[in-house]
Amino acid sequence: MPDYRVAIAGLGTIGLQVATAIDSGNLPGLSLSAISARDRTKAALNIREFRTKPAIVSLSELSDYADVIVECSPAAVFAQSAQAAINKGLIFITVSAAALLERADLIELAEKTGARIIIPTGALIGLDAVRAAAEGEITTVTHCVRKPPASLKGAPYIEHNAIPLNTLEAPACIFKGSARQAATGFPANVNVSAALGLAGIGADQTQVEIWADPALERNTHEITVEADSARFSMKIENIPSENPATGKITALSVISTLRRLTAPLIVGS
Fold it and tell me: Which active-site residues does the annotation give?
């Protein structure tokens, strides 16, 4: 069983849960070597009871401490950890699929350096089926996102179009377009759409609808795929974490991805 040193970029809702899971010893073959956070004092307090204290370093320094980088930081600083990790040929696990869409050069760089870029399924469902269908021919992929209005606040598309989320009394479709356009307009909300595009027929061909629904308490995703191998649809209703834009299952998906690095049995493609 290989041993991997894991460093985490971002110690927010996702990063702290992942760090805690590694420090607990419940992920065999993995050790927490370093973390990076915007507020180092707060980060030190968050890990004060950890069994083994990781180094607290800058984003660009993480790759000096690790074999695996887990990136769960704001999209604006995505490139700082990504560039260094991929330059060194590391395993780079990222929840920022939307940011990766804007940096296709990093995928090309990974081919040269031997790095591996891994996007966890996150808050979505069925990326394994979409990847399998993509080995054949996919005709269409649609993604319908329904969220409570509060979880969409602050998105560039909402701000630019002055959409009055606070006054919505009924479900409203606030966006229709490609997954690439959705990732630009909602970089913190639809990383899942970007991941779906990368897994299937591409971000420009994957169609996305985003609904704000004041009656909802859970972030909901519905996917429909038409392919020469199968026709399938999937739905998931995610319980929000303390950050309303992030479902609880997202951190668990990252932990599951890490477990697969050393697991003797892997279920699912």
Answer: 221
